[in-house]
Each structure stands twice: as C-alpha cells, then as structure tokens.
TrEMBL record, chain A:
Keywords: FAD, Flavoprotein, Oxidoreductase
One Gene Ontology molecular-function label: oxidoreductase activity
Domain FAD-binding PCMH-type: 1-177
Superkingdom as given in the UniProt entry: Bacteria
SUPFAM superfamilies, A to Z: CO dehydrogenase flavoprotein C-terminal domain-like, FAD-binding/transporter-associated domain-like
Matching InterPro entries: CO_DH_flav_C (IPR005107), CO_DH_flav_C_dom_sf (IPR036683), Diverse_Substr_Oxidored (IPR051312), FAD-bd_PCMH (IPR016166), FAD-bd_PCMH-like_sf (IPR036318), FAD-bd_PCMH_sub1 (IPR016167), FAD-bd_PCMH_sub2 (IPR016169), Mopterin_DH_FAD-bd (IPR002346)
UniProt name for this protein: Molybdopterin dehydrogenase
Gene3D superfamilies, A to Z: 3.30.465.10, CO dehydrogenase flavoprotein, C-terminal domain (3.30.390.50), Uridine Diphospho-n-acetylenolpyruvylglucosamine Reductase, domain 2 (3.30.43.10)
Presence of the UniProt keyword Chaperone in the record: no
UniProtKB/TrEMBL annotation, chain B:
Domain of life, source organism: Bacteria
Domain named Aldehyde oxidase/xanthine dehydrogenase a/b hammerhead: residues: 36-151
Single GO term (MF): oxidoreductase activity
Organism of this sequence: Falsiroseomonas bella
InterPro entries attached to this UniProt entry: Ald_Oxase/Xan_DH_a/b, Ald_Oxase/Xan_DH_a/b_sf, Ald_Oxase/xanthine_DH-like, AldOxase/xan_DH_MoCoBD1, AldOxase/xan_DH_MoCoBD2, AldOxase/xan_DH_Mopterin-bd_sf
Pfam families given in the database record: Ald_Xan_dh_C, MoCoBD_1, MoCoBD_2
Name of the protein: Carbon monoxide dehydrogenase
Record's keyword terms, sorted: Molybdenum, Oxidoreductase
Keyword Chloroplast tagged: no
Length: 291, 798
C-alpha cells in the first residue's frame, strides 16, 4: 500500500519540535530511524498530518559517561550501539543485543529511542534496558523528567510517554566488577524478532553466589517481562544446576505468554525455560557446563 | 549441406572447439542490467494518459455483497471511476477452468470481479481507478460496501461431508476432481508383504514469493481497436489468447509485451481476476491502466499451492523389495479452479508421480480435489513433485527403518535399473531414459557418508542430534500437448525461434520462450552463437512480445531449454546453412567445403579464413546487384519444435540433506545439502547449478518456513514478509550439485528441464534428515512445515 499523504519537517532543535507539536497537536508524529514508523504507515494503520524528523537534533545524540552513569542519546543507531567503546565497557549487554536486531541496513538507521518508544514486545532493547536497571530521560515542552525503565513499559505497545514527550537519553548505572549479563534468544531466522528471548544481569561473588538478579524476557508477553519469581529463586543462592532448575520452575508463575504464529503459549514457556538455562550456564566455569 | 547435424558433428559439449558454447559456463547477457538496476520491469513503464487501479478486496472468506456505495470514493481527489462486478460483466465474459482430459472435472464460472458473493478473503471485489495509485487507495478506503457474511468452508477434510458449505450451489458439491490410478493388486500385495508401514503426510500451503509482484498495464487504443498489455507474465501468447477471448476480441488485436520479469516460479502463468479486470477497464476507459500488486495483495491473491494431506502405505518383502504403494491424497484448492491450467493438475501430478523412481508392481493412488474458501491454489514450481516425493521417500525411509535396512541400500535395491528403459511406471508415465543408479553412485561419491555417520554418533553422545536424509525423485519436463492442449486449453506445447543475420554480421534471435531471471536469454544466446558460429557477444536475444516473436508457450514446466532451446538450435543451424550458400556464391566454393567459426567464413578442411560475416552482410544487403540473380537472400530462418515421441521428458536425480535439530528449541539447521540430477544435455553448468540451488532453497523454504496460515474465520494471517518467512541466505547451507547427462533423443540438443529438480526433492530429503536426527529420541515428523512447534510437539516437550 502507499503511505497516506502527510507533510514532512526536519527539526533541528527541541524547541522547533515543541513549536510543531503546538501547531499540529496529535497530528504531529516523531520520526527517528523510520524503521518501524515507515512500515506501519504503509499499512495505513495511522495517518499523521506531519512527520517531525528529529535525527538532526544534537541534544538527542551522543554517548558519554556523566555522574556515574552511561548516557546514551536516544538517536544512537543500533549499529553505533554495537561498536561504541563506552557501551562495550559499561553496558556490554546492549552491544551484545545488536547482532540480534534485524539486519545491517536496518541497524544502520534504527535508533534506541525509537525501539524503546515503540516498545515492541519481541524487541531486544526494551528488555536489555530493564535488565540493566536503566533510567530514561524524557523531555517535553513542559520540561524534563526521569522514569525508571521498569516503570516505563506499561502494556502492549504502551509506554509511560505522555503526549508530546520524547525520549532524550537512556542512563545506565555503571556496573561493578561482579556484574554479569547475557542475552539469548530463539528466532526462526537470523534477524527475525524473537520467538522468545531473555536479557539477564546479575552479580556473582567469588563463591558464585547470586545477588540482584534481573531476568527480563521478551517475545513472551506484552512487553519486557521481569521474572520476579525466577529471580527470587536465584537470589542469594549459588549459581548451579539446582538454582537454575529452580529458576526454570518458577517461571510458570512469572510468564503468561500469548499464542502467536509460531506456536502455543506452552511453547513460549518451554523456550523461556530453555533460554534461562542457556543464559545462566554462560556464567558458570567451563568445567561445570560440560558436566 | 546435406550432412545431417548430430550432437557429435556440431560439437555439443566440446569445450575444445572455438565458439563451442553449449556445455560451457558463460555469464548471461542480462545480468549487468539486472544487478545495476537498469532493467525495465512493467512498473517502470509509464504511458501517456495512464491511470492506476486499486482493488477493494473481500474482508470475509465468504460473504454476500449486499451493496456497494461508491459516492464517497468518487469524491476523493484524483479518483476517476469505480467498477463493480456487474459493470465489468458487460464487457468481459467469465471463464471456467476445467480440462477435458481430466475426466469429470468441474468448476464454477469466474468473473473478473464477483457478481454476488466473495468467496475468499482477499478476492478483488471493486476496482477504483484514479490518477495515481495512492489516490486509488484513498478511493478504496472511501468505498462503503455492505456485506452479509456467510458460513465459510475452510477445512478440506469436511468439504465433501454432509452439511458442508456449498461454495457454488450450482455445482451440487465441492468436489472438483478425483482420479484413482491402479496397477496390479495392492490389497493382495499388502496382505502377502513382510512389512507394511503407513503414515500421514501433510505439505503446508505456501506460495511463490517473487521479488517483482504481479504487474500489468493494459492499454486499449480506440483508434485502432487494439489492446496492448505490458505484463509481467511467463506466457505472453497464452495471455494474448485469454485477453482476446474474455474481452470478445480477435487474438490478432491483442499484443502482450513482457519486459524484464523479476521472478515467477509458476505464479505468473495464471489468469488473475484483477489483471483481467484491468484489461476490461482499459477497454471501457480507452486509457492505459496500471496495476501492480503490493505485498499484501500478493499474499492473498497470488496462487497458493501444496495444501495436501496424504495417507500412505508401503509394502515390502523381507529383502526390502517394494511390493506396493497405496496413497490417498486430498487437496483444497480454494473456491475456483484457476484458469486455464486448472487447479486439478497438482493432485493429478501426485497420482502420476508417487513411487516414481522405483520399480514396483502394485499401485493405487487417489487424489481428491475439493473447493474451500481460501486463496485459490494452482501450479507453483515443481507442481506436485515435492508432495509426491515427500510421501514416497518418507514411506521408503519408514520401510527401511522397519526392516532395519540402510536408507541407501533400500533405494539401491528398488530404483529402476539404468538399463531398463524405455520403462512405463505403474501410473502409466513413460520414461525414455533415466539414470537413478548412476546418480546414486555419483551422490555417494560426493557425500562423505562414513564421516557423517561417525560425526552423528559422536554428536549424539553430546546431546546434539544430527541426521542424514536422502530423496530420489523424478521430474516431468518438456511437456507435450498431453499436459494442457489435449484438454482444450490454448496453451502451446510447441515453441519457435527466428534467427537472422544483420548486415554487420551480428545475429538476432527472437524466441517464444521467456525470461524471468533464470537465464533463458543466456542459454538462447549460447545455443545460437554455437549453431551459427559467431562469438557470444554478436548475438542479441528478443523474447516477450507476441507481435514480434514466433508463437509459443512461454516458460513453465521446465520447457525453456528443452523446447525453446531446440527451436533456436534448429533455426541457428538453418541460418548457418543459408549463410554458407551465400558465402559459397561469393567465394565460388561449394557451401559444404565452408564453415563459420567465430564470425568468419572459413575453409572447413584447413580452417583458413575466407571472409568475415560483416563483409558477407555488406555485400548481400547493399550490393546485392553483384550476386547471382537466383541466389536465395533470406538470412533469416524460423523453426518450431514440439516433442513427438514422449508426452513428457522425465528427468531424475537424488538429494541428500545433513541437518541438525536442536531438541530443546525445535530449531532445524540445515548443515549441508547435495543434489545430483540428470537434465540431459547441460547447456550452461553455471545456470543449471543455480537453478538446482535456487530450487533446493525454495524446497527447503516450504519445508521449514513458508506457510500461509489462516485463522478460524478464513483470514490469512501471514500477509507480510515478517510473518510469511522465506528462506534467507544466512539459514541456507552449502549446496553441492552434480550431474549425470542422459540427453533426450527427441531433439538434437538433448536438453530436458532442470528448474524444478531442486524443489522436487529438497523437502523430502530434509524430512528424512530430521527424522534420522530424531530417531534416538523416538520422535518423527511428517507434517510440513517443520517448525519449532511441530518438532517440540513430536518430542513431547509441549
Ligand atoms: C525488517 C525489520 C526487522 C526488524 N527486526 C527487529 C528485531 O529483530 N528486533 C528489534 O528490536 N527491532 C527490529 N526492528 C525494528 C528496528 O529495531 C527499529 O529501528 C526500531 O524498532 C524503531 O527505531 P526507529 O529509530 O527506526 O524508530 P521510528 O520508526 O522512527 O519510530 C518508531 C516509533 O517511535 C517513535 N519515536 C522514535 N523516536 C522517539 C523518541 N526519541 N522519543 C519518543 N518517540 C520516538 C516514533 O514516533 C514512532 O512512533 C526491525 C525492523 C525491520 C524493518
């Protein structure tokens, strides 16, 4: 299908965005990488009056460490995320997620802000930022506020963004040496949205004892799903076959996956359990995995 | 020139001769323009006064069209006209897709836009014509259609049961066609057998995804009463006849031009109601009308295929000799048989092809073809072959398992002997010459079976499940009129080529077969360069225009090389002989003593150059006054070719697949794949290998990913490339291709078809590989596609 008719404006400052919003109200739609928005326009699912291109706004760009936090501008492209040294150092999980996202051409355009704002339940980055306990910096004509990522995703394609509000940046707390993370997923073909996926972060002491585990699943619910019971099954216990099995068992109480084209809910729960073991085993010494 | 050309004396497959191109891997001429984006597809064509069509498609699987209110649509800026079924019925006749030789076949009249009822979700119902496609879509959105939803018949299993929804009440029931082939005494063979094994197989409904969607511009010129269709099609002459007949015109008043076509796979050889509607609208409006299907429309309106359920039994004796096959096939084809090839052919092929590679005595196979409220199905690459091969090879592996016999050994014991030809198969297919055992031996030389089996053992100990699967197959190519013409369809089994030499010594070939990306023009160029004796670069190829090319069937069913190629070779040889007559007069030499090598007339005996063709052309065309008065001057020759001895030229081959199944996630990874096939004379090994590889990828696609999934109301759920999964390069294995060459004696060229072999065998080889991998876990899969859910279910994990 052809896109509905709409106007296009490239904003160079946030003030210009606010001006356009005031002028067009609900009819103004923010355009970042366009890798989701342009496809949905071709489905004629929505008919905005004007697309406001934010990709030239300097305030939404850049990756830096500030005040003990890694700040990632909303306009950071997936490809940039994958090769940035600060991200590799402080938020390796995000860099490791990148190869799972679509294909190179899409990764060269799609942005982290767009991915979080769209909140696709099978997308990788929403779960990663929740697993990293990141905070989002939101801006609007009314000013700036911060929302913890665990409170940001409110439902299927729903977020805490208020009308007119933009994601300006993602702030990730700098991890200490004991912090580990991993991302695993099952997809039909490379680059596809996941049938099920898991972003996990946890701390391991020298005795392999787990603390502050965050297991955040994607592709199995309405958005990133934090598995509190599975986390509780790991908290304070030594990581090993037993605690992993306990976390797997606890998942039944954490997840209530919908059926989709790939299969029934039982399959998603099964895959989530398989991924739980596969992700957690990565943190075990090589000898234990073989056993 | 009374020497009769033979494969030997014209140097076929001799790489040591100059301008010997047949048998050589040379690049095809149209590749640069395709990869540089300089091709000219139908959508690239823009005509003066052109308008655009968009269709309102039925949102219901089955519904009465109560009322169409187009007032708001007509008010949309840019919208010009709105057409309903009733409007088009005034200028366009309906068609009924049956073939007389498929006994008892029935189907309902189909209009370009339905008159009363929509019978599948996605059926075009109302056409909006506007200044742009976007405006036409705005118009479609503004149409108000009142529907009365009706119960839909979706399940093919219940289509003939009492209480089924009658899709066309006038037909009396939903049965389109049924046929049973029997040979010998199946029941007695089963009763006496050492082992009888049975299974139910399902092949998933899928479709052929072409990069370029279906496209047409129909241009009716009121001044001269002609219709010109720029059409992305495989069969321009067939479409010429169809447009003429439905629009009540003479065939000669219709011209079909088919420029570059971005893939077809059988999808573009059928009559689509939206395309005929566009032609009818062009005739009414007297303006060129363009329609390019978008991806949504493609998924709901391009033909689907392979929606079959097969119950099969095989009987073997204690030595593994196959005694009998007993197969019951059921297929749902949507609400209409598709014109003009019909949707009964796929089921009919299943009956013709099951058990095909094997020597056995007792056979029973029934196909039952029924109507349902889903997208119509029809012929798609390797029509019926992957279905027949899956059930045959699945059963052969089950028999081997029951006997404790190696899958290679059971095949070796049962494949038709290479010296058994001519041979007639139990369902009556006549094989001129096949090479199953030679192909098997060649395959075994390529596949490191011992190493693979050792790896399989070692991996199993680590919980990694890998399997090796085999699938022998036959493929029906070079069809004669037995395929369609016999049944009354105006589909030419014959094809023609005109070859001419221009004054500069360059050669042009005009052919009735067509190019969709597979390299038809590449092999025609090779054949003509070889036949005439010029360098490849001196040959230009023209295809895809009913007004300029000889009448022919186009490209489908693997006939481009075998039929179109032979016509080109015969006309090239005739042109060469004609040139040598002229050269003989100019050089005062006997034509028999001359030859043409790389564009030079030479002495045959010594190879001494006598005259370049450009010089011959200059004299002939511009100084004809200097030549003998009675010298024939036609440096242009046309030949047509049709097979006469055999209804079809069968080919054969065998594939092997090495795959890994993740027993926890159900994901299948194809590690390596092999195919040895025998398409007779290989004209261009590079192109044949590409065809085989592409075919295998398409076969693996259907077996693993591609699936048209419907919900309980008959809505197609897989309407984007994110939901309908095509195989992509990252998932595809290395594919090794080998050849055995058994040329057909029906033609000088000896070529049979090669385009469908890969697709025919790949799903069965993969299925057998998966089951080989799953065997220690006690699981088995027989329902395609083999998705993670399907495999996890078989493993009892969900
Ligand atoms: C073929 C294909 C495959 C894909 N596969 C995957 C995959 O496997 N995993 C995955 O995670 N993603 C996948 N994607 C989506 C891709 O990651 C997108 O880039 C991402 O979801 C959206 O980012 P964008 O910058 O392109 O946003 P856009 O498309 O420009 O915008 C998306 C939405 O977010 C809004 N928006 C954008 N930026 C902001 C902001 N800063 N503040 C507030 N609202 C904003 C827009 O208004 C719009 O509503 C795929 C996309 C394609 C086309």
């Amino acid at each position: 299908m052809k896109w509905p008719a709409f106007a296009y404006v490239r904003a160079s400052t946030l003030d210009e965005v606010w001006r356009l919003q005031a002028q067009h109200g609900e009819g103004a739609r923010v355009l970042a990488g366009g890798q989701t928005l342009l496809a949905t326009l071709a489905f004629r699912l929505s008919e905005p009056d004007v697309l406001v291109d934010i990709t030239r706004i300097a305030a939404l760009r850049g990756i830096s460490v500030q005040g003990g936090r890694l700040r990632i501008g909303a306009l950071t492209r997936h490809a940039e995320l994958g090769r940035d040294p600060l991200v590799a150092q402080h938020a390796k999980l995000l860099a490791e997620a990148v190869p799972f996202i679509a294909h190179p051409a899409i990764r060269n355009r799609g942005t982290i802000g767009g991915s979080l704002a769209y909140a696709d339940p099978a997308a990788e980055l929403p779960s990663c930022v929740v697993a990293l306990d990141a905070t989002l910096v939101l801006v609007s004509a009314r000013g700036e506020r911060r929302v913890a990522t665990r409170d940001f995703f409110t439902g299927l394609l729903q977020t805490a963004l208020e009308p007119g509000e933009l994601i300006a940046a993602i702030e990730v707390p700098l991890p200490d040496a004991s912090r580990r993370s991993a991302i695993v997923e099952v997809a039909r073909r490379s680059g596809d949205y996941a049938m099920a996926g898991l972003a996990v972060a946890l701390s391991l002491d020298t005795g392999m004892r787990v603390s502050a585990p965050r297991l955040v699943y994607f592709g199995v619910g309405n958005g990133p799903v934090s598995a509190a019971r599975a986390a509780a099954a790991l908290e304070g216990r030594a990581l090993g076959a037993e605690s992993i099995a306990a976390a797997q068992a606890a998942l039944a109480g954490d997840l209530d996956p919908p059926a989709d084209l790939h299969g029934p809910p039982a399959m998603k729960l099964h895959l989530a359990r398989v991924l739980t073991a596969r992700a957690l085993q990565r943190f075990l010494p090589a000898t234990e995995i073989a056993a | 020139m009374n020497e009769i050309p033979t494969p030997e004396n014209i140097g076929l497959s001799r790489e040591d001769l100059p301008n010997s191109y047949i048998g050589r891997s040379v690049p095809r001429p149209n590749l640069p323009k395709l990869v540089q984006g300089l091709a000219s597809y139908t959508d690239d064509v823009t005509l003066p006064r052109m308008v655009h069509a968009a269709f309102l498609r039925s949102p219901h699987a089955h519904a009465r069209i109560v009322k169409v209110d187009s007032a708001a649509a007509l008010a949309v800026p840019g919208v010009l006209r709105v057409f309903t079924g009733a409007d088009l019925a005034k200028v366009c006749d309906p068609w009924v897709a049956t073939l007389d030789h498929l006994k008892g076949m029935k189907s309902a009249p189909q209009h370009p836009l339905p008159l009363e009822r929509a019978t599948w979700q996605g059926e075009p119902v109302v056409a909006v014509i506007a200044e742009s496609r976007a405006a036409a879509e705005d118009g479609v959105a503004a149409l108000a259609v009142e529907w009365e939803p009706l119960p839909a018949q979706l399940d093919m299993e219940t289509a003939l049961a009492p209480g089924a929804v009658l899709i066309h009440p006038a037909l009396g029931d939903n049965l389109v066609f049924t046929r049973t082939a029997t040979k010998g005494d199946v029941e007695a063979a089963m009763a006496a057998a050492h082992k009888v094994v049975e299974a139910t197989f399902v092949t998933g409904r899928h479709t052929g995804v072409t990069l370029e969607p279906r496209s047409i511009i129909a241009d009716y010129n009121r001044a001269d009463g002609t219709l010109t269709a720029h059409h992305s099609t495989q069969a321009p002459h067939m479409m010429q006849g169809v447009f003429a007949k439905q629009l009540r015109m003479e065939e000669g008043q219709v011209r079909v031009i088919c420029k570059d076509v971005g893939g077809s796979f059988g999808i573009k050889v059928h009559v689509y109601p939206d395309e005929v509607a566009v032609a009818a609208i062009a005739k009414v409006m007297g303006r060129p009308v363009k329609f390019v299907a978008d991806r949504f429309e493609s998924f709901v309106s391009d033909i689907h295929a392979r929606d079959h359920r097969l119950k099969g039994r095989i009987a073997v004796d204690a030595e593994g000799k196959i005694l009998a096959f007993d197969i019951d096939d059921l297929t749902g084809i949507g609400p209409y048989s598709v014109y003009p090839r019909t949707s009964a052919v796929e089921g009919n092929q299943v009956v013709n092809l099951c058990g095909g590679p094997y020597d056995f005595a007792n056979y029973r196979c029934t196909t039952t073809v029924v109507l349902q409220n889903k997208t119509p199905t029809c012929q798609y690459r390797a029509v019926g072959h992957p279905i027949a091969t899956a059930v045959t090879e699945g059963l052969v592996d089950l028999a081997a398992e029951a006997l404790g016999m190696d899958p290679i050994e059971i095949r070796r014991r049962n494949l038709i002997r290479d010296d058994a030809y001519p041979y007639t198969s139990p369902p009556g297919m006549r094989f001129e010459g096949l090479s199953h055992h030679a192909a098997l031996e060649k395959l075994l030389a390529m596949v490191p079976v011992a190493k693979i089996r050792a790896d399989q053992e070692a991996q199993r100990k680590k919980g990694v499940y890998r399997g090796l699967g085999f699938a022998s197959f036959i493929e029906l190519t070079n069809p004669s009129p037995f395929m369609y013409g016999l049944g009354g369809a105006r589909i030419s089994a014959q094809d023609g080529a005109t070859v001419r030499m221009d004054p500069d010594g360059s050669v042009v070939v005009l052919s009735g077969v067509t190019e969709q990306g597979q390299g038809t023009e590449g092999i025609l160029r090779q054949i003509v360069a070889h036949g005439v004796g010029v360098a490849l670069e001196r040959v230009k190829v023209v295809t895809g225009d009913t007004q300029t090319t000889p009448y022919g069937g186009g490209t489908w069913a693997c006939r481009g090389a075998g039929i179109g190629g032979e016509a080109a070779l015969q006309s090239a040889i005739a042109l060469k002989q004609q040139i040598l007559v002229v050269a003989g007069a100019m050089l005062q030499a006997a034509p028999e003593s001359l030859d043409i090598v790389l564009g030079q007339v030479v002495d045959k005996a010594t190879g001494r150059e006598r005259m370049p063709l450009g010089e011959l052309g200059r004299i002939l065309y511009f100084r004809g006054d200097t030549l003998p008065k009675d010298l024939p001057r036609e440096l242009v020759q046309t030949r047509h070719f049709i097979t006469k001895e055999y209804p079809f030229a069968f080919t054969n081959g065998i594939q092997a697949c090495w795959a890994e199944v993740d027993a926890e996630t159900g994901l299948v990874t194809v590690l390596e794949h092999w195919c040895v096939e025998d398409c007779g004379r290989v004209i261009n090994p590079l192109l044949v290998d590409e065809q085989v590889r592409g075919g295998i990828v398409q076969g693996l696609g259907g077996a693993l990913y591609e699936h048209c999934v419907y919900d309980g109301q008959g809505n197609l759920l897989t309407t984007t490339m994110a939901d309908y999964l095509v195989p992509m390069s990252a998932e595809m294995p290395d594919i090794h291709v080998g050849h055995v060459e058994t040329p057909t004696r029906e033609s000088l060229l000896g070529a049979k078809g090669a385009g469908e072999a890969g697709t025919a065998g790949a799903p069965a080889a993969l299925m057998n590989a998966i089951n080989d991998a799953l065997r220690p876990l006690g699981a088995r899969v027989t329902e395609q596609p083999f998705t993670p859910a399907c495999i996890l279910q078989a493993l009892g994990k969900i």
